Amino acid sequence: MATLPNPLPSLATSGLQLPPGSLVDDTIDGTWHEPLLWCADEPASHGTWTAMRTAGRTVGLLPVLIDGGRRDQWPDAWDLAPDRTSYPGDHDPEEVLSKYWDDCAPEELDASEGEWPGLAPVPAAEGPDSPDDLAAEIANEYTGPDGWCPGSRIALVPARRSADIPAAIGWSGPLNFEDDTARLSAVLRSWEDRFGIRVVMLGFDTLTVTVGRPPTTLDEARAVAAEHFAFCPDNIDQNPPYDLNVYAEKRVLRQEIWSFWWD
Fold it and tell me: Is the pTM of this model over 0.90?
């Protein structure tokens, strides 16, 4: 994957004030030629996201929370696959989603739900917060002893934009669905442009983004739900209520957090 110069090898002399942590270069194919990310050794606390974003941006690093999950799996055990990851900018997001839709929709959706509907429009209403401010706010909700994910750790990734974070580390969470995460990052770039998303958390096979400009009408939500199905069919066909329209109303409409899981 084409990237900016990686600042991680010189992190120790960068002057950044970081909590105890480790550089991760473990991949499914062995040790990578350079670190893919830095990950803290202990759970993040309130304010960690903002502090790391402010510090990291000066050297080209972006923050993301890491969820070890029930199995306590951290990135050094995630089977990262950077050698199999292309560049997000080489992929057209609509072509990616259309291909996914054609591959999955005929089997999983009612025939009445039809052909690929195309990309959803930008929502008419702007969100109340800037995308970066919302990401920091939601990250605070996840972290700390009373947070939604109190064991999550902060990581720093060399990436141009938040949408590129999964591709930048060669994340293989959706391996059973897509083995080139850059194609998913191409879609995330489009969502970043249209909906103000920020990648705030990665797990072994889970992805969570904040949504700075969520759909505010049911028609908008249904259009986005179609993209969600193409992007991650398991969100709908392996989770109640197993219905795209209900998913649009309950999980997309006015929702500032979108979460995805691949079997």
Answer: yes
